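Q: What structure does this chain adopt?
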Amino acid sequence: MKHLLPLLLVPVGLVIGAAGIVYGEGDDSPGLQLLGVLFVLAAVVFGVRTLRRGS
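A:
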């Protein structure tokens, strides 16, 4: 039960970040691309931190 929130938030963060990167590339918006990268990095860090804390 403790890992339910990260299990839901990490994929959502990855999808939102990837969409921001792709849309930012198409729209030629470096700020949106940066936000997308930050979302992806934050989701990965959050997921790894949760897994490392384990039980």
